Amino acid sequence: MLAFSQIAADQFLSWGWRVPFLLSIILVGIGLWIRLSILETPIFARLVAERRIERTPIVEVIKRQPKEIILSALARMAEQAPFYIFTAFVFAYGVGTLKVSRDFLLVAVLAASVLSFFTIPLSGHLSDRIGRRNMYMLGAVTTGVFGFIYFALLDSGSLALIFLAIFLAIFLAIFLAIFLALIPHDMMYGPQAAFIAESFTGRLRYSGASLGYQFASVIAGGPAPLIAAWLFAVYHSAYAIAGYILVCAILSLVAAALMKDYTGKDIAAEYA
């Protein structure tokens, strides 16, 4: 995106963005290759061997575990909504309101993404130590607080602080003094896959986790930039958006608290 922003210049909005968008098909191919190359989980392999695969898993999981689907979706509110505000809405806000160049914002988000390459697996690793639910709830609390810090830095008008705000938004504002500085999003995203998947029984795990995960994209990730733009247009203050992030964090905090934590437990007994 950064390269084509410079190549297309004033034509970026008309055609420049379309090229990297189309090139992303390469990532789809890589993702498919990874998915087809990895082994199934031992629990699912056992179910296959015993011919206990559910014929209509989506229908069955909706009937048997609707609570887990809803909690999984709500738990992602604090991860999904702020992420798209920090990585998508920031361009409209930065260019239109703060009058910062699009390329500068792209570089800041790119730098944050590089660091996230390390902080996401690190957060997942830490969740194995302190518990997935504890790590997730800590990330939700940090996200709720960080929204106000984020927009305070952006509204400072300083290019250095704007860069710092975007960098920290994709990465941690504050963790504990003895740990590395990560980001609220990564603190939740690292343990999220295991935390959500383990909430469902083995025969329904893939479908249940997928429904909860994608439902969050509908209620949180997708509309987040639109809600942020609407809040700013109505209240003329970025702190209204920070308030929205706080509400999402509270919803995720409550949902995560109601979910079971299987960290360190043998979930083979739950596979049936």
Order of helices and strands: HHHHHHHHHHHHHHH
Principal-axes geometry comes out as globular
Count every beta strand, where a strand is a DSSP E run of 2 or more residues: 0
| Low-pLDDT residue spans | 171-182
Distance between the termini: 46 Å
**Number of DSSP helices?**
15
Task: Describe this entry's structure for a reader.
This protein is mostly helical. Helices cover 75% and strands 0% of the residues. The protein has 15 helices and no strands. It has helices at residues 2-8, 12-16, 18-23, 25-37, 42-49, 57-64, 66-75, 77-96, 102-130, 132-154, 159-170, 184-197, 205-221, 224-235, 239-258.
Report a brief summary of the structure.
The chain has 272 residues and is mainly alpha-helical. 75% of the residues lie in helices and 0% in strands. The relative contact order is 0.18.
Features:
272 residues, mainly alpha
Write the layout of secondary structure elements.
Layout: H1 2-8, H2 12-16, H3 18-23, H4 25-37, H5 42-49, H6 57-64, H7 66-75, H8 77-96, H9 102-130, H10 132-154, H11 159-170, H12 184-197, H13 205-221, H14 224-235, H15 239-258
Helix pairs in contact: 6-13, 7-13, 7-15, 8-9, 8-10, 8-12, 8-13, 8-14, 8-15, 9-10, 9-11, 9-12, 10-11, 10-12, 10-15, 14-15
